[in-house]
What does this fold into?
Amino acid sequence: MLLDRYNIKVYQAGLKFVLYVAVKKVLDAEVSFSHSLDKGLYTEILSKRKLTETDINNLRLEIDKIISQDLKITRKVIAKNDAYNFYLKNNELEKAGNICNLNNKVVTLYELDGFHNYFMGNMPASTGKLKNYKITFLGNNDLILSVPIEDDGIIPDYEPQEKIYESFRMYNRWIKTLGVKYVNDLNKIISENKIKDFIKKNDIMMDNQVYNAAVRIKESKKKIILLGGPSSSGKTTSAKKLALYLETFGLNPIYLGLDDYFKNRDETPLDENNEPDFESLKAIDLKLFNKQLNMMLNGEKVSVPSFNFFTGKKEYKNRIIKLKENDIILIEGLHCLNEELTKDISRDRKLKIYISPFTPLGIDRHNHLSTIDIRLLRRIIRDSWSRGYAPEYTLEMWDKVREGEVKYVFPYTNEADIILNTAFIYEVGVLKVYGEPLLYSVSPDSKYYNEARRMIDFIQMFFPIPSEYIENDNVLREFIGESYFEGRY
It folds into this structure.
């Protein structure tokens, strides 16, 4: 069982502060928390010299000492101007800029062992309970800080995700050339009325990814293309946009949604709580799915199903598929990276694409922009307008969605041949306009109030961006509405 999202964030914030203090004391250096990577936090030690394993071991010893002493983490509320001047004096200009842009008259800082800083969200009261952590040294002054995500307290080993990491690095190089590293840099572009040009540049870069993926598919000559990724990654829009690019190359993509191959509701497997487990691979009619794919590859006619979510049964609506020379099959769904899904078809006949938002934009050097938070914000907004769900319902379901991703998506990301990064540097400014009122609607007596307030705190850092600047074929339209691809394919 995954730990409560709010408590994970509190635990992680506490350990970030401990690591920050330990780096200051042991290495006399600065630390930067860039982004999440394989259930850990990618961290850079900004030192003038190259660190060794001995340095990292000394760092671990200092962290253990701080934890064993159970030092207090003291919350301090200070005047906004004082906080602004404090970070200005320390040459942390991005933090000073963030504080300047806040509407609040006061700012919350935290103190640990004489060091002051702020981290998004709440902090633990002291360091004593932060005993479970893991540091993986990557070399080049980089490391992964990992915390427990399961209630058993076990921390999974870090597994290198080179393709995903390269996607971060590529995006990071691009935004650095444009001088956009932190939220304050983006806000400056908005305030100077230059955001429309920035959006267009970002959109061109994202479309280039899709174009390059289409070229890879054409050159591969493979008939089965599988697109997988976690919830609210923009898989549907990406798949349909990819289909358009493939059509310009003379190919005819045939779209198959994995959800249409759900087993009938009375055959759905049950989870440990004896509830239907729709996230499980066993919820898919694998026998039928593989049989039909093989029939298609053999040039036979196939009547494919359409799942009726109201009746809980597959229906056949006379959709007949018979592959021609230029036809290829685009399959989109949660389990598409898992080789078990298409085990009856050899790996060399398939090309797999992993779709997820990976933004290198930081709030500041000590607060990264969580891709999980971005996906959750996207889903809260889409659930509200497309399904009529209150934010509390989405927040309640999110833990189960995340459990499914941890079990059925993330273990297979290294299977991907191509990575499609669906994060937009500017997107929180757009999503804020829709999401902030929804989050404010969560009442103080709700069990999800703290989580809603945490989300509000992070989106408050962003200046709003009008949605009319967003093209109708943009992935974000899948979540805010009026997408060109709605109802197509």
About this structure: The first strand starts at residue 30 and ends at 37. DSSP finds 14 helices and 18 strands in the chain. The two ends are 37 Å apart (CA to CA).
